[in-house]
């Protein structure tokens, strides 16, 4: 949340700022005033230090740190779709799981923007009753942003092209931004799954992996957003591939255009938009595997947030929700996707054997499918622990070792 003093000053200068933003006949005074307003417009609203301070206050039993989770899309605009599976449905699945994890921690006051019955009542009322204020808020922010770009005070940077949000969706997103600002949200997490245009929408695409979008570095909420993103990215990248889409393959992607994370400098809190992978990826296509994967994606996000706030975070028994696991049946290549294989792949990642040397997680994802990648990694596991013969499938001896190391106690 921006400093109270800054908010008070801004109330007094907004009208003048918009007036100057539309003028080109600048006197020396107006030029100085323009620079002054620009400095207010882009003053840091969240940083590593302010986030840590908020957490420390919560640790002392004072005001809790506020987190808003926004599952992407809704029943009106359901987002991308693949073979009958809608993005809005699985973003809510992940959002609910992440909510449960964060809400169990006494440091956090967590809110889910929508549930299976609709938008949170407070947010729904805000969107319904505050249309004039939301529209004016967006108008002012856009006017200031456009003028400062034209004057060279701010550099316009478009790194990744995005589809333009429908008018109703844009209104909801800007409205949620304003609601988050007025309600002091310290962290805003937008949950999405990716897709891209292609001729055969019923067929899987060629790109894979997750990405974390954050506000571009000139924005007020850029610093706080980046430090949270770095911690979350590190956790997710342990088990899941980073996006290989050109320009998105940086993993953490700065952006000026996405409304969710503060287009036109409209968000005060640290804001992340996480694309948790492409909707057609194999771990999302089998319902049993999808449930396990979504639970783990939420868990990795939670661990990343805790890594940032805790210098010595509580040690979980395992660093993934896919373990511990008890393997009771042999696992062979070309068998159908199953939980046995998914947990096997997670164990092999921890062993440092998956994906096999020379391959990436994009080529060999943790999918629950037992293919050539898993076979090579199992052979390496058998070699590491002296299991003979090195068959490449998980038979009795291999399962016994897996259960010894990673089995449910």
From TrEMBL:
InterPro entries: MurNAc-LAA_cat, N-acetylmuramoyl_amidase_3, Peptidoglycan-bd-like, PGBD-like_sf, PGBDSf
One Pfam family, short name: Amidase_3
This protein's record includes keyword Protein biosynthesis: no
Domain Peptidoglycan binding-like: 341-402
Keyword flag Hydrolase: yes
GO biological process, one term: peptidoglycan catabolic process
Keyword annotations: Hydrolase
Limits of the MurNAc-LAA domain: 67-305
MF-aspect GO terms: N-acetylmuramoyl-L-alanine amidase activity
GO cellular component, one term: outer membrane-bounded periplasmic space
PANTHER family in the record: N-ACETYLMURAMOYL-L-ALANINE AMIDASE, N-ACETYLMURAMOYL-L-ALANINE AMIDASE AMIC
Name under which the protein is recorded: MurNAc-LAA domain-containing protein
């Amino acid at each position: 949340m921006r400093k109270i003093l800054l908010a008070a000053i801004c109330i007094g200068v907004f009208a003048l700022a918009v007036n100057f933003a539309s003028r080109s006949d600048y006197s020396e005074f107006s030029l100085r005033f323009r620079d002054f307003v620009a400095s207010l417009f882009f003053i840091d609203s969240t940083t590593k230090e302010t986030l840590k301070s908020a957490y420390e206050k919560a640790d002392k039993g004072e005001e809790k740190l506020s987190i808003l989770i926004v599952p992407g899309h809704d029943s009106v605009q359901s987002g991308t779709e693949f073979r009958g599976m809608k993005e809005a449905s699985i973003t809510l699945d992940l959002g609910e799981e992440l909510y449960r994890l964060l809400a169990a921690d006494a440091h956090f006051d967590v809110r889910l923007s929508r549930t299976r019955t609709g938008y949170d009542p407070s947010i729904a009322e805000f969107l319904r009753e505050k249309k004039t204020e939301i529209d004016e808020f967006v108008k002012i922010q856009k006017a200031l942003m456009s003028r400062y770009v034209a004057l060279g005070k701010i550099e316009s940077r478009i790194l990744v092209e995005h589809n333009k949000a429908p008018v109703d969706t844009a209104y909801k997103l800007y409205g949620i931004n304003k609601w988050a600002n007025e309600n002091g949200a310290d962290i805003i997490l937008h949950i999405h799954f990716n897709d891209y245009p292609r001729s055969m929408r019923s067929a899987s695409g060629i790109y894979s992996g997750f990405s974390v979008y954050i506000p571009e570095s000139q924005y007020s909420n850029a610093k706080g957003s980046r430090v949270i993103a770095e911690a979350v990215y590190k956790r997710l990248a342990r088990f899941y591939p980073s996006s290989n889409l050109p320009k998105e393959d940086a993993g953490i992607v700065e952006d000026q255009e996405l409304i969710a994370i503060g287009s036109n400098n409209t968000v005060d809190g640290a804001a992340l938009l996480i694309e948790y992978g492409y909707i057609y990826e194999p771990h999302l296509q089998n319902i049993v595997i999808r449930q396990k994967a979504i639970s783990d994606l939420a868990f990795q996000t939670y661990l990343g947030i805790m890594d940032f706030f805790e210098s010595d975070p509580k040690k979980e028994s395992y660093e993934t929700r896919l373990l511990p696991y008890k393997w009771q049946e042999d696992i062979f290549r070309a068998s159908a996707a199953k939980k046995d294989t998914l947990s096997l792949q997670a164990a092999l990642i921890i062993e440092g054997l998956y994906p096999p040397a020379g391959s990436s997680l994009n080529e060999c994802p943790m999918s629950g499918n037992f293919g050539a990648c898993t076979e090579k990694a199992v052979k390496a596991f058998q070699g590491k622990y002296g299991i003979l013969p090195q068959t490449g499938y998980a038979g009795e001896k291999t399962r016994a070792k897996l259960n010894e190391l990673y089995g449910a106690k």
